[in-house]
Design brief:
By secondary structure, this protein is an alpha/beta fold. Helix 1 packs across helix 9, helix 2 crosses helix 3 and helix 7 crosses helix 8. The longest helix is centred in the C-terminal third of the chain and has 23 residues.
Amino acid sequence: MSQNHNIINIGRQYGSGGKEVAEKIGLALGIEVYDSELISKAAEESGFSKELFKRSDEKRSFFNLFSFFGAERFGSSQNYVGDNELFRIQSEVIRGIAEKGPAIFVGRCSNYILRDKKCLDVFISAPEAARIKRIMERTGLAEDEAREMMEKKNRSRESYYNFFSFGNWGAASDYDLCVDSSILGIQGTADLIIDFGKRSGLII
């Protein structure tokens, strides 16, 4: 990977607006943002169903391939694909994209996968009340439903990250910058991250 490639990895709490911040950064720097797009690319490159990757997205799971291809394609010893194989495929997609040019990756342990590369690693959080409010506004859910969704999503992300990275999701030691998006808002947070990246030399 060229040292001139700007690679930004963004971890985020559900409801913190991390994807929106990533999109603002991408717009400002002219860099493509990869989030759900990674699912499509991983599916295309592996030959597995896109639905398989959607169901395992940042969640730990184990799948029967009969559900996606039919029993005739696999012998009894090849009926299942687990977390490690799906993570390996997605990791190869992430590394392949990073080798080709600048990119912003949202979640999916990208900071761990690209730990040997020059990257700006950021974690975006927000107070619980702010996250619940954002989820309610985006989904139309009631407060209790929004809280339940938030807690479930964050448990899944934490479990996924900790299992594959051997680290601690959201721990400051795993990132160059940790920021509360509720303080400056989405655009202000994006501007702050860009300024930090340039000052630190991690964004050129």
